[in-house]
Amino acid sequence: MLKKILLVEDNPNDVELTMEALSENNIANAVDVASDGEEALDYLYCKGKFSSRPPDNPGVILLDLKLPKINGLEVLGKIRSDARLKLIPVVILTSSREESDLVESYRLGVNAYVVKPVDFNEFVKAIRTLGLFWAIINEPPPAV
After folding, report:
1. Nearest to 125 by CA among 21, 23, 27
2. N or C end of the chain: smaller count of CB under 10 Å?
């Protein structure tokens, strides 16, 4: 069974583009969307509107950095400090080219850092590569 992808993105246009890019590239994994950092943590801890979801972890988290309520770096820090979550692959998918964001993401244990291309065709290619690797090729760690 294919593991879910958790997309944490506050920009509805970027959510739509990501979903379209995954679909165009036949990435069949189900995608759940959290629109801010607080929702992402609620999802991972099965709280709030996600309280009835099955407690299995997603196969990969695509995480934006510039999020309302709780920013992506804080979310990443909480994921990496929790024994039940720390092995989930996390890919930063952001428009930020700030060196400090890049360095801090890797310091916190991110698996990959991808700057969102502005051009739609380049964005589709980037999502295809991410999806093929993280959702299909990569062997995720067993549940802890």
Report:
1. 21
2. N
Closest CA to 76 of 84, 144, 85, 68: 85
Q: Where are the domains of the chain?
A: 5-134
Q: Which residue has the higher pLDDT, 23 or 70?
A: 70
Instruction: Provide the whole-model pTM.
Output: 0.88
- Contact between 19 and 31 under an 8 Å Cβ cutoff? The reply is yes
Specify whether the CB–CB gap between 88 and 57 falls below 8 A: yes
CATH of domain 5-134: 3.40.50.2300
Span 67-85, average pLDDT: 97
Average pLDDT, rounded, for the chain:
88
Structure tokens given for 124: 């589709």
- Strand 5-8 vs strand 90-94: parallel, antiparallel, or unpaired? unpaired
